[in-house]
Amino acid sequence: MKKYNFNAGPSILPDVAIENAAKAIADFNGTGLSILSISHRTKEFEEVVESAKSLLRELLGIPDNYKIFFVGGGASTQFFHIPANFLAKKAGYVNTGVWTKKAIKEAKHYGEVEIVASSEDRNFTYIPKNFTIPTDIDYLYICTNNTIYGTEYKTDIDSPVPLIADMSSDILSRPVDVSKYALIYGGAQKNLAPAGVTFVIVRDDMLQRVVRDLPSMVNVNTHVDNNSMFNTPPVFPIYVMNETLKWLKSIGGVEEIYRRNLEKANLLYDEIDRNSLFRPTAVKEDRSLMNICFVMAEGKEDLAPEFLEFAKSRGMVGIKGHRLVGGFRASCYNACPKESVEALIACMREFESLKK
After folding, report:
1. Is 90 exceeded by the pLDDT of residue 190?
2. Residue-range domain boundaries for the chain
3. Rounded mean pLDDT of 190-216?
4. Domain 15-250 class in CATH
5. Per mean pLDDT, which range of 99-108, 141-150, 317-326, 338-347 is the poorest?
6. Mean pLDDT estimate for the chain
7. From the candidates 53, 67, 99, 170, which is the catalytic residue?
8. What is the DSSP letter of 141?
């Protein structure tokens, strides 16, 4: 049976990236060595790192006054790296769900945290808007896409203070004006690579704003100055990231993938809105393109376990909603093909017909 991968992460990657990675495990670039055991200090791997940085800069339109580096530890490590480097007295956070709450908890170890806006009053089903950004904070922190609740920022915020964004789950899925951000980071296991590597894009002026003496691994300058090579980087995930970036460029870049993502999301949201058995969870204007969350319609809640098993029988993988919210979640990351979304829609329609 054909499988349709909607896992929230680690998630689906382009077939060509997986195929090339499999070849590199056997023989990396004709070296006679596996990518799994190649030295990160070799010229061949240094070229992979430079290629990944160059492609990321090209695809996102990253200005020259920004540095890019790759580091292990996952996005959760950045929850404390950010305030350790940049929180002198007080930082502002927009609370849009689990991941910002975790970041807020870590930031409180380093200084005062002001919740500038929050959507917790409605169970994180929307993105806060039209709030005032204080000018006395060291930075404003947001998470641009919320995997658990299925909400996403659709525009880049204009901020009078440095804007820092966790873009783990929607990086390269839509156009972004990088110049509006002081720092962008994310775990790569949604749209870029297997779990294990985190990308950081930081504006040059922030490198002079480190507010305290820090252990080497925590200081942002360590990784910039050492070109991601202060310690052994996540070699294999970086290799796959580079292959994924090459694939994205080959299909037309961010503009083309954004068109595809809009098409996929609109198809599935239209079916959720139409189907008598389901309803969306996020408000319409803030619905995520990446993580499409839905539940059974009112009065149909008892059908949820049955639909989940039915969907599994039709090859759907990973559509169970997060344990905190229940229901269902179809993660339609960049490499998720339109065919998978169409298969899920057909599954939902078939289930509806059986229950009429």
Report:
1. yes
2. 15-250, 253-355
3. 97
4. alpha beta
5. 317-326
6. 97
7. 99
8. E
> Residue 356: pLDDT above 90?
no
- SS3 of residue 5 by DSSP: strand
Task: Write the pLDDT tens digit of every residue in 65-74.
Answer: 999 999 999 9
pTM here is: 0.97
* Residue 99 falls in the annotated catalytic set: yes
- Show Cβ contacts of residue 125 under 8 Å, excluding neighbours closer than 6 positions: 119, 149, 151, 281, 282, 283, 286
CATH number of 253-355: 3.90.1150.10
Residue 90 catalytic? no
Annotated catalytic residue, options 166, 170, 286, 320: 166
Nearest-angstrom CA–CA distance, 327 and 318: 12
190, 264, 286, 320: the catalytic one is 190
Mean pLDDT of 315-342: 96
Average pLDDT over residues 324-344: 97
Give the alpha-carbon dihedral of 343, 355, 329, 282, to 10 degrees. Answer: 120
Q: Of 283, 265, 236, 288, give the one whose Cα is nearest residue 70.
A: 236
Q: Is residue 303 pLDDT above 90, yes or no?
A: yes
CA Rg value for the chain: 21
User: From the CB of residue 72, how many other CB atoms can be counted at a distance below 10 Å?
Assistant: 15
Phi-psi region of 123 (alpha: psi -120 to 50; beta: other; left: phi over 0): left
CB atoms near residue 241 (< 10 Å): 28
| Structure confidence at residue 1 (pLDDT) | 87
**Strand-pair category, 328-331 with 316-317:** unpaired
Residue 217 class from Cβ within 10 Å (0-12 exposed, 13-18 middle, 19+ buried)? Answer: middle
Question: Any bridge partners for residue 142, and if so which?
Answer: 165
* Residue 40 to residue 33: CA distance in whole angstroms: 12
How does residue 219 score in pLDDT terms, banded at 50, 70 and 90?
very high
Told to judge if 166 belongs to the known catalytic residues of this protein, a careful annotator would answer yes
Q: Distance (Å, rounded) from C-alpha 165 to C-alpha 326?
A: 26
State phi, psi for 97 to the nearest 5 degrees.
150, -165
Residues 6+ apart with CB under 8 A from 257: 172, 173, 248, 251, 334
The model's pLDDT over 234-259, given as tens digits with 9 standing for 90+, comes to: 999 999 999 999 999 999 999 999 99
